[in-house]
């Protein structure tokens, strides 16, 4: 297959990646440390010391950059987002539910899962939803080299475009793991970084590990609703469609 392997950070020693890397103006990318992680693909471990402000490392300081998207501009809007698909069976069920409710959402898909279910990309678009990038292999982005960050973003973009003609503009870092180095690379590649609104992480991914109950998720959601009156902007909620349990709760 011409595409990167499933579950692995794409190889950077390929003509495609070399060309993409060459197109980046590296003088605009801050030289920040590559973060440590206990196991490949996982989010990084936070250091004991405070993270310098100019690194704006969301994972360990909750810092947002000026152009991060974490809210909808309109107060009465709700940005419904689903990460980690497409997942055959599960994503179809979710699409059916959204169609029934006449609601559109943004799906932050991974390149690797897309490569196993390309038909779901087109189906998602055909039903009026938006596609965005959740990287190729769902690794903590700050744990990757500059070249790997480029490869993760560009291969996902290319896969979606080659299979649907759809040009993605937004990227959500897995685990929200982003700092000013990763943002600077994403910007140059034409992507806006999307996180989610503070009270609107449903934690539904924990259903897969049985570390949260549907009732607890419902109460997170209700707390989010309570906060609406105090908001000047509309929320962006974080949900997932990688597991049937998550869609049942959705």
From TrEMBL:
InterPro entries: Glyco_hydro/deAcase_b/a-brl, NODB_dom, Polysacc_deacetylase_ArnD. GO terms for molecular function: chitin deacetylase activity; metal ion binding. It comes from the Eukaryota. SUPFAM superfamilies: Glycoside hydrolase/deacetylase. It holds the Pfam family Polysacc_deac_1. One of its GO terms (cellular component) is membrane. One of its GO terms (biological process) is fungal-type cell wall biogenesis. Keywords: Hydrolase, Metal-binding. Residues 76-250 form the NodB homology domain. This is NodB homology domain-containing protein. It comes from Lobosporangium transversale. The lineage of its organism: Eukaryota, Fungi, Fungi incertae sedis, Mucoromycota, Mortierellomycotina.
């Amino acid at each position: 297959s011409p595409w990167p392997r499933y579950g692995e950070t794409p190889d950077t020693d390929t003509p495609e990646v070399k060309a993409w890397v060459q197109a980046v103006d590296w003088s605009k990318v801050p030289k920040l440390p590559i973060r440590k992680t206990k196991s490949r693909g996982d989010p990084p471990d936070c250091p004991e010391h405070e993270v310098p402000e100019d690194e704006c490392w969301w994972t360990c300081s909750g810092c947002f950059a000026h152009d991060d998207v974490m809210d909808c501009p309109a107060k009465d809007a709700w940005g419904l987002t689903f990460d980690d698909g497409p997942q055959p069976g599960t994503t179809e069920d979710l699409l059916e539910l959204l169609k029934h409710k006449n609601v559109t959402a943004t799906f932050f898909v991974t390149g690797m899962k897309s490569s196993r279910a390309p038909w779901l990309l087109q189906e998602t678009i055909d039903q009026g939803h938006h596609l965005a990038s959740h990287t190729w292999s769902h690794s903590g982005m700050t744990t990757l080299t500059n070249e790997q960050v480029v490869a993760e973003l560009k291969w996902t973009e290319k896969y979606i475009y080659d299979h649907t003609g759809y040009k993605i503009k937004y990227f959500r870092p897995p685990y929200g793991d982003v700092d000013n180095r990763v943002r600077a690379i994403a910007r140059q590649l034409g992507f806006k970084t999307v996180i989610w609104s503070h009270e609107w992480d449903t934690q539904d991914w924990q259903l897969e590990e049985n570390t949260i109950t549907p009732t607890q998720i419902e109460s997170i959601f209700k707390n989010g609703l309570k906060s609406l009156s105090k908001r000047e902007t509309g929320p962006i909620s974080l949900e997932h469609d990688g597991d049937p349990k998550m869609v049942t709760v959705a």
